Amino acid sequence: MSRSDVPDGSAAGRRRRELGAVAFVLGVAAALVFSDGKRSAWPFSHWWLYHTGTPKPLDTIVLHQVRVLDEAGSWRRLWPRDLFTLDDDSSSQDMGHGLLARAVDPKNARRVQYQRALLRRVSRLLDMKPKQVEIWHLTWQVDYTKYPPLELENTIAEELALVLPGQSGEPP
Amino acid sequence: MTFPRRLYDKFAEWLFAPKENAAQRLGLARIVFCVVYLWRISTYRLTEVVDLPVADWRPPYLFKWVPRPSELSLSILESLLVFALLLLMLGYRTRLVGFAVLGLGVAFNVCKLSGVGIGLSAFLLMFWVPVFLVWSRWGAAYSIDALLNRQRHGSRGKVDEDTVSFWPARGLLLVLAILFFTAGYSKLTHSWSENPRYVADLLLEKSVASYLRNGAPISPLNPFIASQPFLYVPMQFGALLFELSFPVVVVSRRARWAYFRVVPLFHAVNMFFLGIPVIEILAVYAVFVDWESVRRFLRLDLSWRWGTGWIPPAVLAVAFTSAAWNTLPVPRGCFNMFGWLDHYTIWVLVSLATFAWWAVDLRRWIRQRVTARRRSSVGTSKDLGSRPPASTGSEG
After folding, report:
1. Per residue in B292-305, pLDDT tens?
2. Which of A25, A54, A172 sits opposite B195 (nearest CB)?
3. Which residue from A110, A131, A109, A106 is spatially nearest to A119, judged by alpha carbons?
């Protein structure tokens, strides 16, 4: 067996380093194998991805959209994914969706906090104080036999869910 | 010899087996790792975390004790991480800076996850790669450390490169194999084995959801694939088999050869058909690419002949770039090509590079065959002559 690539030194020292490396690799591997695998065990989480549930291709699909009235009187439209960059590595980009969903949810006792957070986020993102911010529910018909299965411009319903008067963007 | 002892020896033999060009491979892998890392964090704004309500600060279980930092602290954390990564890329005080990259990267990722929710992609880049490679001597080649070492010790500094161990990369390979197996096993024990249309329906549903949520283009082939069992069933069970069998790369050189030529396309398919990016995994695969061979193939000369006078200005430039990370658009823009290099375009580039890799392999294989045939024909014509057969060299 050749272990000549272990850094040089005395035989005992080399042996100690070798043992240390083996213990480290096996320890880390054991921590990963015997962790419960849940995301809460991060960074020793397993790759439990797309393994449960039943995907359902829906006939209609709903998404929030933020519409911002700027100081010049023109409207800007933002998709939930435009609000944050930190979740760019995911396919679902839940950060913006979560914020908007909690801001409009009438059952959420803390929705005012999320509404303030949205105002602050929009102000910082667009670098201006908006005169008004609106959250809309947009609905599309999806036809999987066509390409593309939906067109962003052709919604079947647009419903105003929330109107927020512009503020200075108080910290939430 | 006892069984545990034999097991230990076998494992140690695998772990410490010498690797050709280990110093150069790891040196170039270090640079690629830093470039991928800097590209990745150039698209994130960590300070976004403070725009969420405080109640949304949810660190992972092991980091529950971490309070939500201020905006200034997050900004400083980003700059320090950039500073450490740029130094690591240059290979300056590599061991120390490597640990700094690990610590700052984990802190960055914890802050990110505490706001976004726990994802299973960024930790490959920010935790798993550095947690192993900090133990390697990835600064022994293509680094300021190597340059200074050679300057101090002359030719003795060069010898150092030949004693570089590859065991940290093999440890990372073991973790990658475990992660792939857990991915396959969880699918096998849940919906994938019960529902043969899982992938077909996922192709339809997920592609539209990803289009709306992360902007990934919808593949026009999805409806066709989802309507043809001879396509979607092999896709589903092929993916399952691929993930479950991935651990063979640990023990088989041939499997490693084959799997690493396929796995980039496995992820590219996930991106093109489902809109699932998982780009951070590129940093893991980059550790196993023989960059030294790539460098030789491309005839890139990376030897440094201009002394060491440039080091202090370079470190100053690194400090300036890190300080400007959150104030000027240029430093970030340089690493993400001003927005052009995103989670879609990178997989297009990786797919093209993988096909080029296959083409190079094919060319090499054809050349070997042609050479072998020529040799055998030359040997046959000599045999037909009056001269005695050539020596086999066994005497020598």
Report:
1. 999 999 998 887 77
2. A54
3. A131
Q: How far is B350 from chain A (nearest CA, A)?
A: 17
For B108-136, give the secondary structure using H, E and C: HHHHHHHHHCCCCCHHHHHHHHHHHHCCC
For residue B257 the two structure tokens come to 């050869």
If contacts are CB pairs under 8 Å, which of residues 92-151 in chain A contact chain B?
92-95, 97-99, 110, 113-114, 116-117, 120-121, 124, 142, 144-145, 147-150
Distance CA B194, CA B192 (A): 6
Q: Is A76 exposed, middle or buried (0-12, 13-18, 19+ CB in 10 A)?
A: middle
pLDDT-derived band at B78, boundaries 50, 70, 90: very high
Instruction: Kindly provide the ipTM of the predicted complex, given to two decimals.
Output: 0.89
Task: Indicate the domain borders of chain A.
Answer: 1-52, 60-165
Crossing angle of helices A94-104/B94-116, nearest 10°? Answer: 30
Counting one residue from A and one from B, how many pairs have CB atoms under 8 Å apart? 244
Residue B387 pLDDT grade (very low, low, confident, very high; cuts 50, 70, 90): very low
What contacts B134, CB < 8 A, 6 or more positions away?
B95, B98, B99, B101, B102, B168
Chain A residues lying within 8 Å of B56, measured CB to CB: 98
Amino acid identity of residue B274, one-letter, is L
Instruction: Report whether A170 contacts A120 (CB < 8 A).
Output: yes
Give the integer Cα–Cα distance in Å for A76 and B342.
24
Look up tokens 């375009």; give the residue: B345
Q: What percent of chain A has pLDDT over 90?
A: 65
Q: Do A92 and B213 touch (CB under 8 A)?
A: yes
Helix (H, G, I), strand (E, B) or coil at A137: strand
How far, in Å, CA of B86 to CA of B38, rounded? Answer: 8
Among partner residues B60, B112, B182, which is closest to A40 by beta-carbon distance? B60
Per residue in B116-129, pLDDT tens?
A: 888 888 999 999 99
The pLDDT value given to residue B314: 93
Mean pLDDT of the region B50-54:
92
Residue B36 bridge partners (DSSP): none
In contact, B151 and A19? CB cutoff 8 Å: no
Total residues belonging to chain A = 172
What pLDDT is stored for residue B382 in this prediction?
A: 57
Q: Are B124 and B280 in contact (CB under 8 A)?
A: yes
- Taking CA B58 as the corner, what is the angle to CA B55 and CA B59, rounded to the nearest 5 degrees? 145
Which residues, in sequence order, are CB contacts of A147 under 8 Å at separation 6+?
Answer: B218, B220, B223
Of B10, B52, B193, which to mutate for an interface test with A (greatest number of A Cβ within 10 Å)? B52
Write out the two tokens for B111.
């802050």
